[in-house]
Amino acid sequence: MIPVMADQQEPALYTLYSTVHASKVNWLWYPYIPEGKMTLLQGDPGDGKSTMMMHLIGEITRGGVSPDGIPFGEPGRVVYQCSEDGVADTIKPRLEACKANCENVAFINEEVHNGLTLDDERLLNTIVQFRPRLLVVDPIQAYLGHDSDLLVAGRARRLMRHLSEWAAFYGCAVVLIGHQNKKEGSKGIYRGLGSIDVVAAARSVLQISRSEDDPNLRVIHHIKSSLAPRGDDIAFEIDPHHGFRWLTSRIAEAQTTTAYLSKREKAIDKLKEAIQKGDITDAEAKSLLASYGVGEKSARALKKTLGIQTYRKKRQWYWSLGTKE
What we know:
Elements: E1 23-24, E2 27-29, E3 33-34, E4 38-43, H1 49-61, E5 78-82, H2 87-97, E6 105-106, H3 121-130, E7 134-138, H4 153-170, E8 173-179, H5 196-201, E9 204-210, E10 217-225, E11 234-239, E12 243-246, E13 257-258, H6 263-276, E14 280-281, H7 282-290, H8 296-305, E15 309-313, E16 316-320
Parallel strand pairs: 4-8, 4-9, 5-6, 5-7, 7-8
Antiparallel strand pairs: 1-13, 2-3, 9-10, 10-11, 11-12, 14-16, 15-16
Helix pairs in contact: 4-6
C-alpha cells in the first residue's frame, strides 16, 4: 500500500445522502419536457411529430402558452436541427405559419458544417453561444454517425452522455425526435429505434399515435416520466382544410423536487452554480470537484466536455463560461 502524506487530501470515496440537498426540477412544459434533461418524442413517420414540435416552438419563441394554457414566460430561444426538410422551402415557411419569432430560432448549417453527430462539440458551441432554452434534433437517426451506433448499448450511452451533461450544465431542454420500430405488439417504451439505453437516458418519453377511427386525430401518450407523475394524454388534429389545432387541455400540477442522480451530476451542478457567480480559479474549481469525488484527470475532461473556457490573470488560471482575452 502506498502511504498518504499528512498534507495530501484525497477526494472522499463515498458521499452521505444526508449531505445531498434536493433540488427543484425546472420545466419547459410540465410534466412533459423538463429543462436541463432529455426528452424522447417518438412515433411512426407522418404522425405529426415535427408539426407538433413546430407549434410548440412557435409559442416558446414568442412567449406564448403551452397546449394546456400555461404561459411559457419570456420569449425563449430554440435550436431546431433538422436533416429531413429544406431550410428555405419547408422549415422557414412552417415556422412562419406557426407564428414563430424566427429571430429566436437558429440551426447549424449542415451544408457548411457537415457530419454533425449527437456528441459533436459544434452542438455544444452553439448551446454556449446562442443559449437556447430548447434544442430539438429531428430525427435522432440522422445524427448518429453510423446507423449501427444506436443499436450498440455502449455507443448509445456515450452518445447520450455528453448531450445530457451539456443540457444539464446550461439548463437547456433537449427533445430528440425518433421514428419507431415495427414491433407493434411491444410496449410503447420498447418501440423506439435502437438500444433501450436511449430510452433510459431520456427523463421523459412521449409517443404519438394516430387514431384508427379518425385519420386526422393524433394522441400524445406520456409513456415514461422519471421526474414527475406521467401527464394526461394530449390530442391534436391535423386537418387538410383547417390545419393544426390542439383538442384537449389539462390543469398543470405543482412542480416536484428530485435529488441528484449521481455524485457527478451534483458536481456539475455545483460547478455551474459557482461559475455563474463569477469566474473561479483553477485551484478552486478542482478543489470543488474533488470534494464530490471528481479527480484532476476527470476534472480536465469535464471542463472540455462542458465547453468551459480558461484564461490567465495575475499568474493564476481562471475557469469561465465565456471567452476572456
